[in-house]
């Protein structure tokens, strides 16, 4: 079986802590884009060259939040140019912090849950759904290589454990829940009315941490999305944030995909679970 490698560059902005930690913002956002492995070195070269022309050192760790307004505008123009050249799109997932805490539960016995990991799981489901089309069309296995900037080692370990359950489901593999070091319960989902699992190949998913000019691109995506949604929330405090209405006017809107349009908002399960006003 052939194997195709797709890179998934991601970054988060806003809240990302544990379910029992004090929130600093009202929401957490994760944004990312998919790119073929053979395009990665070319994109790396182009973004480094573009940043250098803006008098920004591509070798240093850059943050959109650390740039002034003029620099930010020029960086956004650079990202637009590169996304057009490489025909790239991005998408995001967003969680209301209070709704996440309500979803998880805050009893003393409740194990701490990572909002950062939940954000990754939500956006990963979208990424894998897109990659399923590649498997079905080309009869190939797909390795999805997630790339992010700095992630705490404990959170990274939890992320791998959490997303492995999604990958196992899509690969038709049973998940194991360990009761002790040697005892476990196996589970699987069957009899789905609509089965999203690929028929012609399998998934492999890995995540690694790096600081590069390309991870700065995902930093720009998450930062601009977070800032845009925070502004939207001021006038629309009770509306879901993963909709076309919420993302309207985003500085990179032309490259944004997979937002719920008004006619599809009833299908917005993530919005219902992690949107505003959730109460157990």
Automatic annotation (TrEMBL):
<protein>
    <submittedName>
        <fullName>DUF3800 domain-containing protein</fullName>
    </submittedName>
</protein>
<dbReference type="Pfam" id="PF12686">
    <property type="entry name" value="DUF3800"/>
</dbReference>
<dbReference type="InterPro" id="IPR024524">
    <property type="entry name" value="DUF3800"/>
</dbReference>
């Amino acid at each position: 079986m052939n194997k195709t490698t797709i890179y998934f560059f991601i970054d988060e902005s806003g809240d990302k802590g544990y379910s029992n930690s004090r929130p600093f913002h009202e929401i957490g956002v994760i944004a990312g884009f998919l790119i073929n492995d053979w395009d990665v070195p070319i994109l790396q070269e182009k973004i480094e060259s573009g940043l250098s022309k803006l008098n920004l050192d591509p070798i240093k760790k850059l943050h959109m939040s650390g740039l002034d307004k003029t620099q930010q505008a020029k960086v956004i123009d650079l990202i637009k140019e590169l996304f057009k050249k490489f025909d790239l799109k991005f998408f995001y997932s967003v969680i209301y912090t209070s709704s996440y805490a309500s979803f998880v539960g805050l009893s003393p016995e409740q194990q701490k849950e990572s909002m950062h990991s939940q954000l990754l799981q939500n956006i990963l489901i979208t990424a894998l759904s897109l990659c399923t089309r590649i498997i079905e069309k080309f009869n190939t296995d797909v390795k999805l290589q997630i790339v992010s900037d700095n992630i705490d080692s404990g959170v990274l370990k939890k992320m791998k454990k959490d997303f492995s359950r999604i990958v196992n489901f899509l690969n038709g593999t049973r998940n194991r829940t360990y009761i002790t070091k040697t005892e476990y319960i196996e589970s699987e989902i069957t009899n789905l009315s609509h089965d999203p699992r690929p028929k012609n190949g399998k998934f492999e998913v890995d995540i690694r941490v790096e600081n590069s000019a390309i991870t700065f691109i995902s930093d720009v995506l998450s930062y601009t999305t977070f800032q845009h949604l925070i502004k939207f929330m001021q006038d629309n405090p009770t509306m879901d944030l993963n909709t076309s209405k919420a993302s309207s006017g985003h500085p990179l809107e032309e490259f944004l995909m997979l937002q719920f349009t008004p006619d599809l908002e009833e299908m917005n399960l993530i919005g219902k679970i992690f949107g505003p006003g959730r109460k157990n």
